[in-house]
Structures are given as C-alpha cells and as structure tokens.
Amino acid sequence: MLVLAGEFRGALRTLFFPSHCAHCGVATYDDRDFCDTCIQVIERVRAPACDICSQPYQGEIERFECPNCADERFSFEFAVCVVRSRGPVRELLHRLKYGREIWIARVLAELMREGLADPRLAGRDFDALVPVPLHALRLREREFNQATMLAGHLSKITRIPVANALKRVRFTGTQTRLDRRHRMQNLRNAFAPHKNADVKDKSLLLVDDVLTTGSTLDACASVLLEHGAASVCALTVARG
Ligand SMILES: [Zn+2]
Ligand SMILES: [Zn+2]
User: Fold this and answer.
1) Which residues pair with 192 in a beta bridge?
2) Cys staple from 168: which of 105, 135, 193, 216, with CB 3.0 to 4.6 Å?
3) Residue 234 Cα, ligand 2 centroid: separation in angstroms?
4) From the CA of 12, how far away is ligand 1's center (Å)?
5) Is the pTM of this model over 0.70?
6) Å from CA of 36 to ligand 1 middle
7) Architecture of the domain delimited by 72-239
C-alpha cells in the first residue's frame, strides 16, 4: 500500500512537475535529461576512434592511434571523450560557460558517467579527479569554472574526491588561431601545482568540458607527472 502510494505520488509529481529536455525544453515526464528527438542527434564518440585522444576515425579498424598521437606523445595516458561537440551538446556547453546556466553541469556530468564505462577507464582506480583550472582573471569574469563543476558532480557519482591540484599561472588568451605546436608552446608553463597539492604517487583523472587539440590536458598532465603523480588519464564531456 505504501509502495503504491509512493508510486502514485511519483506519477502525480511527474504529471504536474515534468522534467524538461535540457536542450529544447519539451516536457519529458520521466526524469530523462533529453527528449527523444534531441537524444538522437547527440553524437556519441564510438569506435573506431583513436585510443589516445578519442578522435573518431572513418574506416573499419577497431583500434588505432591517429596521426596526431603517433607524431607527438601526449603526457596523459589517454583521454575518454563521450560525445562530439556538436548540435545540442555544443549549445549546452556554450550555455553553461557563457550563459551561466550552471544547472547544465549536472546534465553534462551525467553524460560523463557513460565515459566511466569505457573499457579504458573501467576497472581503473583513481585517487582524485583534477579539474582543469581557469586563470584567475577568467574565473573572475565567469565566476565559476565549468571543469570544477563537472568534477564536483562526477565526484558525487563516483565518490572519488576532487583535488584542485593545479592552478593556471599564465593567461594564454584564446588559442583557436594557433596550430598544434604553437598551442603547446603557448601552454608550456601556463599551469603549476597548487600549494599544498599532494599528487605524489597518485593516480589522477583530469576533468574538462571539451578536448579540442589536447594541448591543455597535455600541459596539465605534464605538470602533474613532473610533481610525482603515478599516472594521469583524462575524461571530457565532448570531443571537438
Ligand atoms: Zn529536446
Ligand atoms: Zn589521437
């Protein structure tokens, strides 16, 4: 009887307070974050994709390393990216970062949860989630760091603690016009360990919203490894 009453209350709640699609806003009635239409246009990163940087690949090969990763080694072991940064996800990332719709971080962290089941991550133990930091100037302008918010939600899901182990010490400005080598040069020395950050012998999972070229995650991972981290992998919502 109690169970039935609970179910009834649940049904009433969804009838009168339906959940809404995070992208288009239509009622979903069943606590899902996306409606049927939007979920279908969200492009998952699926095999075949690069084992290191998750760059999707056109072809039949199941496992491979893209030319970028074959050319120059990243400092992180690999980066798992869950979806392509296109359509609804691209728009949600934009609304989170520039529209200050911070509730979107939870929705995106739910997508990241899928990334935890990726064979590269499944079965691995991490001591801490490390969000990619923003420079203090940008943090002041935006008032929050989306990577920290994603890591916070992911921490609730995984019970892995968040370690704000890094800080951004150089303002690198927008990097979109630079090629890969110049981005990497520009980012060298942009990050430093936080005072009191204890990363020695720790297995760390870097968390960010998007991987575009991988240079930011690379720079972060190299600082963590230089300061004694045992291993550094990465997880992002999207692959640019
Ligand atoms: Zn929708
Ligand atoms: Zn790659």
Assistant:
1) 167
2) 135
3) 13
4) 22
5) yes
6) 7
7) 3-Layer(aba) Sandwich (3.40)
* Nearest ligand to residue 32 Cα: 1
Contacts of 32 (CB under 8 A, 6+ apart): 19, 21, 39
Stretch (H or E) spanning 38: helix 36-41
Which ligand is located closest to the Cα atom of residue 71?
2
Distance 49 CA to ligand 2 centre (A): 8
Alpha carbon distances (Å) from 138 to 98, 103, 171? 11, 20, 8
Strand segments, DSSP code E, in the chain are: 49-50, 63-64, 79-84, 128-131, 166-168, 191-193, 203-211, 231-239
**Ligand located closest to 73 CA:** 2
- Return per-residue pLDDT of the chain as tens, 240 residues: 555 676 777 666 666 667 899 999 999 878 899 999 999 999 999 888 999 999 988 877 666 778 888 877 899 999 999 999 999 999 999 999 999 999 999 999 999 999 999 999 998 999 999 999 998 888 888 889 999 999 999 999 999 999 999 999 976 666 666 677 777 777 878 999 998 889 999 999 999 999 998 999 999 999 999 999 999 999 999 999
Domain ranges of the chain: 1-41, 72-239
* Location of structure tokens 């090969």: 61
CA of 20 to the centre of ligand 1 (A): 8
